[in-house]
C-alpha cells in the first residue's frame, strides 16, 4: 500500500481531486467509482471547480457510487444518487447514460445488484474506486463480518445513518432502509483504489486497517491485499497513524 500524508485538509482535498482528474485525463472513457460523505465532499467540489474553470472532456467518463440507500425516494437529498449528482456528476455535466446508479426503490434488488455490476463490467470494469472508511472499518456498506467474497448486495446501514434518514423523512417504523453496496470482491476488482480518511476520529481504525491483520472484522484491512491501493490521510489522521506505525 502506498500511504500519502497530506499537510492539511485543503491539501487532502486537492490531492484526492487530482487523483480523480488525472484518471479522467489519462483515460477518456474512465470508469470511476465514488463515495459519499464528509470525507469526499471537498474533493468533489475541487474537481467541479477545476472543470468549471478549465473545462476538460468528460463525455466518455462513467461515474457511479460504491453504495446507495434503499427504500427511499431517489430525489431525497441524502441518497447517494442525489449527493453525487449535486456534488460532481451534475457540475461536470456527466450524461444520464454515463452516471450509473442502482435504483433506490425496487421489487427485486438482487436483480438490480446484478444489473449494476453488469453495467460496470460492460464498460471494462472500474479504473479507480474512491473509498471512505467507517469508524468500524466498513468500506462501501460492507460492515464487519462481511465475507471478502461478497458480491454487490443489500447490507445493513449504520444506526446513526438510520436515525438521521428516519428523522429527515419521517419514515414509518416498519420501513427498513437497506444499504445496497458493491461487495468486497467487486471493490477489490478495481484497477486502482484510493482509501481516503479525514479527521482524528478515523486515525485508529485506519491504523488497524493498514497495519493490523487482514480480517473480516475490519473490512478495510482487505485492501492490504490489493496491488494498487493508495491510502490518503489528512494531517489530523496522519499524526496518530504515524505514531501507531512505530508500535507495529
Ligand atoms: C457511509 C458511506 C461510506 C462512507 C462512510 C464514511 O457509511 N456508505 O461509503 O465511506 O459513510 O463517511 P464519512 O466520510 O462521512 O465519514
Describe the structure.
The protein has 248 residues and is α/β, with parallel strands linked by helices. It contains eight helices and ten strands. The strands form two sheets. The protein has a seven-stranded parallel β-sheet. The protein has a three-stranded antiparallel β-sheet with strand order 4-8-7, with helices on one face. The protein is globular. The two termini are 15 Å apart. The mean pLDDT is 95.
Question: Keywords, please?
Answer:
single chain, 248 residues, alpha/beta, seven-stranded parallel beta sheet, three-stranded antiparallel beta sheet, binds 2-amino-2-deoxy-6-O-phosphono-alpha-D-glucopyranose
What's this, in brief?
The chain is of the alpha/beta class.
Shape: globular
**Parts with pLDDT < 50 across at least 5 consecutive residues:** none
The level of helicity is: 25-40%
Termini Cα gap: 15 Å
What's the number of extended β-strand segments? 10
The hetero compounds bound to this protein are: 2-amino-2-deoxy-6-O-phosphono-alpha-D-glucopyranose
Kindly name the structural category.
alpha/beta
Q: What profile does the largest beta sheet have?
A: 7 strands, parallel
Q: Rg to the nearest angstrom?
A: 17 Å
Number of helices: 8
Task: Give the rounded overall mean pLDDT.
Answer: 95
Strand content: 15-25%
In sequence order, what are the helices and strands, one letter per element? EHEHEEHEHEEHEHEHEH
Amino acid at each position: 500500500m502506498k500511504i500519502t500524508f497530506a499537510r492539511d485538509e485543503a491539501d487532502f482535498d486537492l490531492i484526492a481531486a487530482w487523483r480523480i482528474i488525472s484518471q479522467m485525463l489519462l483515460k477518456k472513457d474512465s470508469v470511476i467509482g465514488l463515495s459519499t460523505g464528509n470525507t469526499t465532499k471537498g474533493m468533489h467540489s475541487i474537481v467541479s471547480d477545476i472543470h468549471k474553470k478549465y473545462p476538460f472532456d468528460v463525455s466518455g467518463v462513467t461515474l457511479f457510487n460504491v453504495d446507495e440507500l434503499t427504500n427511499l425516494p431517489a430525489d431525497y437529498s441524502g441518497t447517494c444518487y442525489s449527493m453525487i449528482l449535486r456534488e460532481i456528476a451534475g457540475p461536470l455535466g456527466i450524461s444520464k447514460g454515463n452516471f450509473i446508479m442502482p435504483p433506490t426503490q425496487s421489487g427485486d434488488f438482487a436483480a438490480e445488484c446484478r444489473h449494476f455490476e453488469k453495467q460496470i463490467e460492460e464498460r471494462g470494469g472500474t479504473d479507480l474506486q474512491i473509498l471512505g472508511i467507517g469508524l468500524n472499518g466498513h468500506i462501501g456498506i460492507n460492515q464487519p463480518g462481511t465475507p471478502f467474497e461478497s458480491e454487490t448486495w443489500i447490507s445493513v446501514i449504520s444506526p446513526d445513518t438510520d436515525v438521521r434518514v428516519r428523522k429527515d423523512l419521517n419514515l414509518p417504523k416498519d420501513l427498513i432502509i437497506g444499504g445496497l453496496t458493491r461487495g468486497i470482491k467487486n471493490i477489490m476488482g478495481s484497477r486502482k483504489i484510493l482509501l481516503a480518511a479525514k479527521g482524528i476520529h478515523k486515525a485508529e481504525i485506519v491504523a488497524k486497517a493498514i497495519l493490523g491483520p487482514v480480517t473480516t472484522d475490519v473490512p478495510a484491512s482487505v485492501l492490504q491485499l490489493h496491488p494498487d491501493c493508495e491510502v490518503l490521510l489528512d494531517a489530523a489522521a496522519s499524526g496518530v497513524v504515524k505514531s501507531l506505525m512505530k508500535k507495529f
